[in-house]
Amino acid sequence: MTTTEISLKMVFDRWYASIKSCDTLLDNLSNENLQKEIAPGKNRGIYLLGHLIAVHDDMLILLDLGEKLYPELNEPFIKSPDKAVVQLPLAAELRSFWTNQCEVLKQKFDSLKPEQWFERHTAVSAEDFAKEPHRNKLNIIITRTSHLQYHMGQLVLLK
Amino acid sequence: MTTTEISLKMVFDRWYASIKSCDTLLDNLSNENLQKEIAPGKNRGIYLLGHLIAVHDDMLILLDLGEKLYPELNEPFIKSPDKAVVQLPLAAELRSFWTNQCEVLKQKFDSLKPEQWFERHTAVSAEDFAKEPHRNKLNIIITRTSHLQYHMGQLVLLK
Question: In this complex, is the C-beta atom of B6 within 8 Å of any C-beta atom belonging to chain A?
Fold first, then answer.
């Protein structure tokens, strides 16, 4: 294995281990639990779940892997703060979105060749990328793993 | 830049950006804030700060970079849950440990050559490492960045 292959493996191992921990965490939270705030006056579990799905959906765009699966989640879960939107999807619905999305993302990630992960993502221009080659597709996986962990540290408080 | 160099840069960028966010977060929390629980019945801020320092101290051992700076934090902040130990260090003291430790870690990390990050860490045997070359020093940075983000998602609730 080359150091590049090892680097790819480490990044994806961390992503998939984080997704798996989040799955386990969601299995241990009831729909009722998800309606609660993670701490008094803070975001509710359901908002964080919708937020994660919306952010992961945007990875498809950044990685040039097709259209978003749930574009309707952008408005309530990224553009709006929690409690600003009255009618949110049901927890059961978001859970099925999450499960389906994880499978679709895995399939699409698996379709890229190792070298493609070092190509630029769609939010960086060719000029900027020439100077900053770390703004590549793999970096999207790295930063979204951080983001997922951050919110998992919050969702776990609902247990 | 080779893909290996780019991978190293991405991993360390994520680590240092996380450390910087945590610095900013700590600057925005008073010592009194740190005495509070992140959510009712959950860990206090001071416990999480001590826990992060203790976990980062252990990186020195795993990376074979010398002795721990604050070995006395292992018992109260890793082996014991919050509120099990009556006498914890003062928040002001932990803050100065944190700042000093971040500097020391940076210095020691900078002393390693790129290829050394792909050598095995001290918790994996040579036999296992031959089969699992991703269990290297760089992976320690990756997993501890996840850990830091997870607890930052909690510390931010004290604001």
Answer: yes
